[in-house]
Amino acid sequence: MGIEEKAGNLGIVTTTLETVVNWGRTNAMWPLLFGLACCAIEMMGAQASNYDLSRFGMELNRASPRQADLMIVAGRVSRKMAPVVRRLYDQMPEPKWVIAMGDCAACGGIFNNYAIVQGVDEVVPVDVYVAGCPPRPEALIDGIMMLHQKVMREKINGKKEAPIRIEHPLMQVK
Amino acid sequence: MAEPITVPTPQQIIEPALAGRTETMVLNMGPHHPSTHGVLRLVLELDGEVVVNVAPDVGYLHTGIEKTMESKTYQKAVVLTDRMDYLAPLSNNLCYALAVEKLLDVEIPERAQIARVLLTELQRLSSHLVWLGTHALDLAAMSVFLYAFREREQILDIFELVSGARMMTSYFRIGGLAYDLPADFIPTVEQFLAIMPSRIDEYEDLLTANPLWLERTVGVGVIDAQSAIALGLTGANLRATGVAYDVRKAMPYSGYETYSFEIPIGKNGDIYDRYRVRIAEMRQSVKIVQQATERLRELGPGPVVTPNRKVAPPPKREITESMESLIHHFKLWTEGFKPPRGDAYVSIESPRGILGCYVVSDGSPKPWRVHFRAPSFINLQSLAHMAKGRLVADLVALIASLDPVLGEVDR
Lengths: 174, 411
Description:
Order of helices and strands of chain A: HHHEHEHEHE
Radius of gyration of chain B: 22 Å
Oligomer: heterodimer
Structural class of chain B: mainly alpha
Number of strands of chain A: 4
CATH class of chain B: Mainly Alpha
Number of helices of chain B: 18
Number of helices of chain A: 6
Strand order of the largest sheet of chain B: 1-2-3
Largest sheet of chain A: 4 strands, parallel
Strand content of chain B: 5-15%
Number of domains of chain B: 1
Distance between the termini of chain B: 34 Å
Strand order of the largest sheet of chain A: 1-2-3-4
CATH architecture of chain B: Orthogonal Bundle
Low-confidence stretches of chain B: none
Strand content of chain A: 5-15%
Largest sheet of chain B: 3 strands, antiparallel
Mean pLDDT of chain B: 89
């Protein structure tokens, strides 16, 4: 049918450009080494021995935004910090994705006051929202898996999908 | 009298540099920097690689916790204390609960007191493990981080068993505990205690005599006892200078006077001594947890919350039987309790130093003012004093050794 039949067992796979590019992007996603508050400790937990984020090719946290393609906003964003978050996002090269980790980054969480930005999506576009205060490492990994699936669905013409929300089963609205 | 120690502001360093009056270079470190342990910004004045002056710029994580607490009832404000020092939420819970309890003058049952000591000591272990892991990571020793987090997960599992949450437990409530300890609590803690001392030996094997570690830490970031006291340094940072001051001994709370433990002290006040003091503290914490576990076992089941129904809600089953209990429950969760007018200050030994809580009551169900003496914030002001004349690389080690938590610095 395709070229692989003619070539025999030579280790040739036919695919689309879209799939191979997206596959490459998902399996070597480098997150920005960027922690804000409590959630950053759970993010460290996700990278440490028990949860081992390197299983998904994500052990390499880049401290420089120029080398990162995923920003995990882990924690509450204050009004003083918001311009810095935006600047870091702008410094990241395309293609780039954002995970809002925790309730504070998603919607301000329990801090509805003068100091905290009510959701980091006021500042940067968010791809996946992970709920929890702080989310367990499993929830973060689930969010990352969702992002991987989303990246796999990405079209080469650059059209973006709507954000994904990961919520605790008890909190989901039926 | 030694000359007064001053902490510069960022403007004091930036302005002369912009005006071209200085020969030195100004470098901005943070707020996004992997070794500032959060969102701390440091303005460095450098002469080559040597630090001439450092000005910390805080507030990038300002959350308005103290202000928000004024709009919550006393019980509901407990949740906010968790998020200050997020490496030791239980210490924050304890400090706030003790301050409000002092204001109310309520008695805490024995079982709750023991559980509080036990869990805060486990919290100290978990906090020191994060310090150890990140400190070593900053000095390029990756494996210690992986070892430290392995044990930390076990402690978090205990917290999850007790309260249902790994980090933000809110388990200590005003008047006692949120609910009783689970049945398999003691065996789980004992299982952890059985392995922990050997694991601390493992960390020491990796670092204590490691020539690379010694090179980076011995004689670096030295502070003498007099300057440390003048700068308000507390916790392991103060004890590393040779001052044996620990609130658990000096002003015991929650029955710490009945536990036998020692206060490890250092001699030189350098980064290595701080490391040794914290490691020794971990061993002491294991000792305290052991004693507390034995006491819990001897004491057996019992109440974990004060019988004063004006402060703590009645057990759920009573609500279906007694009209009075229903009224208490309703009043507590809708209006809250009203402490008498006045103020109370309580300080405890958190993993980072003296954590103080000052609560002012105007007689209403909401606190008029809550203020925290945050040890991270006050420890941070000694940074400029210790970093002067050292290399930039030493500054990285120094920040880690002070163990600041930016959530607590900015609150």
